[in-house]
Design a protein that fits this description.
The complex is a heterodimer of chains A (280) and B (338). Chain A is mostly helical and 280 residues long. Chain A has two domains: 46 residues; 230 residues, MetI-like fold (Orthogonal Bundle), CATH 1.10.3720. Chain A contains eleven helices and no strands. Chain B is mainly alpha-helical and 338 residues long. Chain B folds into two domains: 42 residues; 260 residues, MetI-like fold (Orthogonal Bundle), CATH 1.10.3720. Chain B is built from 14 helices and two strands; from the N terminus they run H-H-H-H-E-E-H-H-H-H-H-H-H-H-H-H. In chain B, strand 1 and strand 2 form a beta hairpin. The termini of chain B are close together. Classes of the chains: A mainly alpha (280), B mainly alpha (338). The interface between A and B is large, with 110 and 111 residues.
């Protein structure tokens, strides 16, 4: 092929060098992940204890904990899920079952684009929509913000999952005389349910780490709160406030809160991965 | 999350020729004509429509709430260099500058890194290595922004201050880019943390794009005697527009990234040639000042900045999606993070 051996060698060397370089790139990314997670575990474990997990925040020097923030995050996630998941799933069903036209394509495109819009913009929107009207920060506003972030994510995963259901299943049900809505709700949806559940879990994991949209919707609170029309604490906002504070004690608490948050997020991600190794 | 696939035939289109005709193609009425179906379809249609309404109402709500500032400053808002809440004088240029420069730094680092990762995972590593590595890289995308910020403040910023920025200043100190006080908090650190955050996003999309290139392309190159790397280059050339889309998608994320950048960039509205100096981004100023904004004009100016951010990221993302689709369209690539 080549006349001499040298050009061939150069080509081989280039190939070997570049192959190694790409492996190094992957190694760098994995190393960064290990460093970050390792540092969180190391810093977090040293200041976490049961009291910390159930206490409310206290002034510097008096300890305090993140009990209300954990509760707040769970309430906000619950609210967001109640509003966001049904709408996301319904939208996903539309896209997969009826979305084969210009309208469906437009919605699909806008939905995809919406997932890339910064979450802080959602925060501003919900602020103008709800907080300005209610004249105060509230749990419900935070829940709506999270729901709006979840909807496009859930829509697209649901659509993908429903599309995996074989057409023959639909045809079988239709041939038995079932109306379209029964076919979709009774046959297609159950068949895709585990995939849809996976998508929902991932959406919850994603928004559980959101901070920016909560800053001026749920705002934050130093107390246990059960009222939807009052400000609500959350792990992420608590971490942010403690991280930018000048106190070492609060920094330690920020790491501990981060450990709790990361445990939640990684648990969801790894569980989902474990159960859907085939699909993803 | 899911990679976009536009052209895969919807199951609905396969019900039969009769279903393809006008009634089925119309948006609201079902083929069977039963009442239940019509209601079912109308509900789902309403939900889908909600997404479009959401975007429209976001623009409307933000536009109406920023009207005060738009009237007051007009186009000069984008070019004003002052941000002075006390004098009610607002210009967004320092934030635009900070956002653009930090995003460019992020791309400079993240693009080669992500390309390397994607090539390694798709073209080179055997499945038993590429699967777990791909999972770990995706885990980088699962870490919340605020956690990156916390890590950035206490680990990355000191590291940059001690080990990265001093050598850079020594070697490239003759460039204005690398002059100034080294604090570890500033544009450069902001760019680096952004790079870490967008790497998993870019590499996931590039992975999908590379996987969409037909195997025959690789076989042809190999059959012609190409080395592994030369084959990869053929694949890259085929996937070029999709890769461009992935990069633009990463740019969109970098522009809108809020918490992590806010925590390490220093938050000072200034335009300085030095990358070591503190800066401020569009998203950061909103995060920091929105709840403290006293006065209607101040709040209005912040909402206008938010509106700009929304429009820019929306357009950037739309362009990116179109580019990625141009490559992955028609392939049944597996669903992945996007």
């Amino acid at each position: 092929m080549m006349r001499g051996t040298r050009p061939k060698n150069i080509r081989r060397w280039t190939s070997a060098v570049m192959t190694t370089a790409t492996a190094v790139c992957a190694l760098v990314a994995v190393t960064v992940l290990v460093i970050i997670l390792g540092y969180i575990a190391w810093q977090g474990i040293s200041s976490i204890n049961l009291q910390f997990l159930i206490d409310t925040p206290k002034p510097v020097g008096e300890g305090g904990g993140i009990g209300n923030a954990i509760l707040g995050t769970l309430i906000l996630l619950g609210l967001g899920s109640v509003m966001g998941l049904p709408l996301g799933i319904a939208g996903g069903i539309y896209l997969s079952e009826f979305g084969d036209n210009w309208f469906g394509r437009t919605v699909r495109f806008v939905t995809d684009t919406l997932t890339g819009v910064p979450s802080i913009v959602i925060g501003i929107f919900v602020y103008t929509l709800i907080v300005l009207r209610m004249k105060q920060f509230s749990t419900i506003a935070g829940g709506v913000a999270l729901a709006l972030i979840m909807i496009p994510i859930v829509m697209r995963t649901t659509e993908e999952m429903i599309r995996l259901v074989p057409t023959s299943l639909r045809e079988g049900a239709l041939a038995l005389g079932a109306p379209q809505w029964r076919v979709t709700m009774g046959v297609v949806l159950p068949a895709a349910s585990s995939g849809i559940a996976t998508g929902c879990m991932l959406a919850i994991a994603r928004v559980s780490g959101e901070t920016a949209p909560l800053l001026f919707t749920a705002f934050g609170s130093r107390f246990f709160n059960w009222h939807l029309d009052e400000p609500m604490a959350s792990l992420t906002v608590q971490i942010y406030n403690y991280a930018i504070s000048p106190y070492d004690e609060w920094h330690a608490q920020a790491w501990a809160a981060t450990l709790v948050l990361m445990t939640l997020i990684l648990a969801i991600n790894i569980t989902v991965r474990f159960f859907t190794r085939k699909r993803f | 999350m899911i990679a976009p696939q536009l052209e895969r035939p919807s199951p609905a289109s396969e019900y039969g020729a009769r279903a393809r005709r006008a009634p089925w193609r119309s948006l609201l009425f079902s083929a069977t004509g039963s009442k239940g179906d019509t209601i079912f379809r109308a509900i789902l249609f309403g939900v889908a429509l909600l997404v479009l309404l959401l975007v429209a109402s976001m623009v409307a709500a933000m536009a109406s709430n920023s009207m005060l500032s738009i009237r007051e400053f007009g186009f000069s808002f984008l070019l004003g260099r002052n941000w002075n809440p006390i004098k009610d004088d607002f210009g967004a240029l320092p934030f635009i500058y900070g956002t653009v420069v930090s995003s460019l730094i992020a791309l400079l680092i993240a693009v080669p890194l992500s390309l390397g990762i994607a090539i390694f995972l798709v073209e080179q590593a055997p499945a038993r290595i590429s699967r777990p590595v791909a999972f770990l890289v995706e885990m980088l995308a699962a870490i919340p922004s605020v956690v990156y910020g916390l890590w950035g403040i206490f680990v990355l910023a000191p590291f940059m201050r001690e080990y990265i920025e001093p050598p850079l200043a020594r070697v490239f100190g003759w460039l204005p880019l690398f002059q100034g006080t080294i604090t570890g908090i500033g544009l450069f650190t902001g760019g680096v943390i952004l790079a870490i955050m967008i790497t998993p996003i870019i590499s996931a999309v590039v992975r999908d794009v590379l996987a969409a290139v037909p195997v025959s392309q690789r076989e042809a190159a190999l059959a012609l005697g190409a080395t592994r790397w030369e084959t990869t280059r053929v694949v890259l050339a085929n996937a070029a527009s999709g890769i461009a889309g992935a990069i633009i998608l990463g740019l969109g994320r970098a522009i809108g990234e809020t918490m992590a950048v806010t925590m390490v960039i220093g938050n000072r509205p200034q335009i300085s040639a030095s990358l070591f100096e503190p800066s401020y981004t569009i998203a950061s100023v909103i995060a920091n000042e929105f709840t403290e904004a006293t006065g209607d004009l101040y709040l209005s100016a912040l909402v206008e900045i938010g509106l700009i951010l929304f429009l820019v990221t929306f357009i950037v993302n739309a362009v990116a999606k179109l580019l990625v689709w141009s490559v992955t369209r028609g392939t049944s690539g597996t669903a992945r993070a996007a």
